[in-house]
Write a structure and sequence with these properties.
The complex is a heterodimer of chains A (209) and B (395). Chain A is an all-alpha fold. Chain A has one domain (23-194). In chain A, 67% of the residues lie in helices and 2% in strands. Chain A has a two-stranded antiparallel ribbon with strand order 1-2. In chain A, helix 4 runs antiparallel to helix 5 (72-94), helix 4 packs parallel to helix 8 (113-123) and helix 5 packs across helix 6 (96-102). Chain B has 395 residues and is mainly alpha-helical. Chain B has three domains: 2-36, no CATH class; 55-193; 217-249 and 275-388, no CATH class. The radius of gyration of chain B is 23 Å and the shape is globular. In chain B, helix 3 (55-85) packs parallel to helix 5 (131-141) and helix 13 (276-296) runs parallel beside helix 16 (336-356). Chain B has 17 helices and no strands. Chain B has helices at residues 2-16, 26-36, 55-85, 91-124, 131-141, 149-163, 177-188, 190-193, 217-222, 230-236, 241-246, 258-271, 276-296, 309-314, 318-325, 336-356, 364-389. Classes of the chains: A mainly alpha (209), B mainly alpha (395).
Chain lengths: 209, 395
């Protein structure tokens, strides 16, 4: 119970909905369009991203007093890229197929604005414990949107989930057709837009007064 | 009779106003009552209205202008279907077949779109806007008669929700909802709306049809090989200039007949409902771009480049898009000069997309949607240029 009142929990909770990196800050859109055509690669991407984000936040937070102000971006990049290479190698070793599907987008985690953003905005100003929770929260906030988008894109675009056909055959026989649009990038844009809309309805953000 | 209907409606009103049984369904009652009779409320303070031109009359004018296109669309769909299998081309059976093809599309469009409008009106507690009357008929007119009904329904649902309601309903949409719906169907089910699916094949027991693939004029023109002339190939394929102009060719339901669309255009201009600046701008833009292409066109280049402006305006959906889609008052700019610029750019873009891009057989839908997005920017630029011209009154 005491954890739910702690500062760490608040730091963790904030980026899930209230300050979500995708639906509020509209960061990291590039990867969320590129990898979400299927749900499984989306989940792997989320894991890789959360891993990199959490550990880069911790590392940079530990180093925050040693990093010279004028070269801090370079130092941050070195930390992030080492972690990205680590994640990439892990995927190549244990999940080669998915790694091929994600192609450059694991490598491109390094340019994901969320990571640099959290490093600059949070890790440089807070201790490692809070930075850990902030990284985890942001990773999962990014993650749940990716997984929801991946779910709907695979379901409507290919009629399957995790690569298994879920739309029954008789539907195809009576004329159902998969939505080609969902497999294109605009499909992801539209879905993310709808998610932002639904979230704003519930939180009351962005409502005209 | 009319009196009785009015009395009946007045009697029912108590169920729908605050505290009544069907309080939530008030928008439905309001729409029905004010559609049949005019609005009861009158202006309380001094008079500001010069003319009683409200949204309802505005939209009814568009409906009137569209009527010839709808009727011809029904006739033409039946005509093409009968021609494909060699049935009689008499007026009555052709009209019957056409109605069977077209009316379900229109009904689905109104039913699905109208239900969504109603839902949003109830949730947001506002009245149903008449804008949907026009959207609901414009959309099916841009579809091929062969489109499966459920796809048409999904399309209009998307158009109304994402094209309009997300931004706050009629009057706040920056995209044309009918075109948004069509664009959605176009990209989602490409095999059903472009390519060779435009003629419906009648299935009857005693007649065996192996298959019928009717390419549209645009597909024929785009597929012409280099040494041939596009206009000759079109004429040989059955798309002579007169035929394309009059409109007895396969195509989307409402788009084929240029003279009837011209009639609608004149009607819209005389009643002041459609902006003639947008229409003229679009015609000038399309002519200019086609002439530029004609200059570029050499013996070995894409023969589509060499097609003359008259041809370009007769085939495809240029006329329909210019008259009924580009002039949408909500999604086009508000200033007179910017409307002209907007139309002009639509003309140029539409021809470019149609002729140069091999992925899209027709350009007007995308050209208009693109210019919809730029409409506020055009307005902004025009206004700031006008402000710059003013002599500052503070020294």
């Amino acid at each position: 119970m005491s954890f739910l009142k702690s500062k760490a929990y608040k730091t963790f909770k904030k980026p899930l909905i209230e300050a979500n990196p995708i639906s509020i800050a509209i960061l990291g859109i590039c990867s969320s369009l590129a990898v979400t055509t299927q749900i499984f690669p989306s989940i792997i991407m989320v894991l890789a991203m959360t891993f990199v984000l959490t550990f880069s936040n911790i590392t940079i937070s530990i180093l925050r007093h040693v990093i010279p102000k004028n070269i801090r971006i370079i130092v941050e990049l070195v930390v992030v890229s080492s972690l990205v290479i680590l994640a990439d190698q892990l995927l190549k070793a244990f999940l080669f197929d998915v790694s091929k599907q994600l192609s450059v987008f694991v490598g491109l985690i390094i340019t994901n604005c969320i990571i640099m953003g959290r490093a600059e905005a949070f890790a440089l100003a807070n201790g490692p414990w809070l930075s850990f929770w902030d990284g985890l929260g942001n990773g999962l906030g990014y993650g749940y949107i990716l997984i929801v988008v991946g779910f709907f894109r695979e379901l409507f675009g290919a009629g399957s989930l995790f690569g298994i056909k879920v739309v029954p055959d008789f539907l195809y026989q009576i004329g159902y057709v998969d939505m080609g649009l969902m497999l294109l990038a605009p499909g992801a844009f539209i879905l993310i837009g709808i998610l932002v809309w639904i979230q704003n309805i519930f939180t009351g953000q962005g409502v005209e007064h | 009779m009319i009196k009785k209907l009015a009395d009946f409606l007045n009697e029912q009103e108590k169920h729908f106003v605050k505290g009544g049984k069907f309080e939530k369904l008030y928008p439905l009652y309001e729409a029905g009552a004010s559609f049949l009779f005019s609005v009861k409320e009158t202006t309380q303070s001094s008079v500001h209205i010069r003319d009683s031109l409200d949204t309802k009359r505005f939209m009814s004018m568009v409906m009137a202008a569209l009527t010839p296109c709808i009727l011809f669309g029904i006739y033409n769909s039946g005509y093409q279907a009968h021609k494909a299998v060699g049935l009689s081309l008499d007026l009555i059976p052709v009209l019957l077949t056409g109605s069977k093809l077209v009316l379900p599309l229109i009904l689905v469009s109104y039913a699905v779109g109208g239900t969504i409008e109603l839902l949003f009106a109830i949730i947001r507690k506002h009245e149903i806007n008449e804008g949907f009357l026009v959207t609901g008929i414009l959309y099916p007119l841009t579809l091929p008669a062969t489109l499966p009904l459920w796809q048409a329904g999904v399309g209009i649902a998307f158009g109304v929700i994402v094209g309009k309601e997300v931004f706050g309903g009629s009057g706040r949409n920056f995209l044309n909802p009918a075109l948004t719906a069509r664009a959605f169907v176009f990209f989602t089910y490409p095999a059903y709306i472009s390519g060779e699916v435009w003629t419906s094949i009648l299935k009857s027991k005693d007649q065996i049809v192996d298959g019928w693939s009717g390419a549209t004029a645009l597909a024929v023109a785009a597929a012409t090989e280099a040494p041939m002339k596009a206009s000759e190939v079109l004429t040989n394929a059955g798309f002579s200039l007169e035929k394309s102009f009059i409109g007895l060719i396969p195509g989307s339901i409402g788009e084929t007949s240029v003279p009837l669309i011209l009639f609608g255009a004149i009607f819209l201009i005389i009643t002041g409902v459609g902006s003639w600046r947008t229409m003229i701008g679009s015609v000038l833009g399309a002519t200019l771009m086609t002439l530029i292409f004609n200059l570029i066109a050499g013996p070995s280049s894409n023969p589509f480049l060499g097609l003359s402006p008259i041809w370009q305006m007769s085939i495809g959906s240029f006329a329909f898009a210019t008259v009924f889609m580009a002039t949408d008052p909500v999604s086009s700019p508000s200033l007179e000069i910017s409307r002209f610029i907007y139309g002009f750019l639509i003309g140029i873009l539409g021809i470019i997309i149609r002729v140069i891009n091999p992925a899209y057989p027709e350009g007007w839908m995308l050209a208009i949607l693109l210019m919809n997005v730029f409409a506020p920017l055009i307005d902004h630029v025009v206004i700031s240029m006008k402000i710059k011209k003013r002599i500052p009154n503070v020294v």
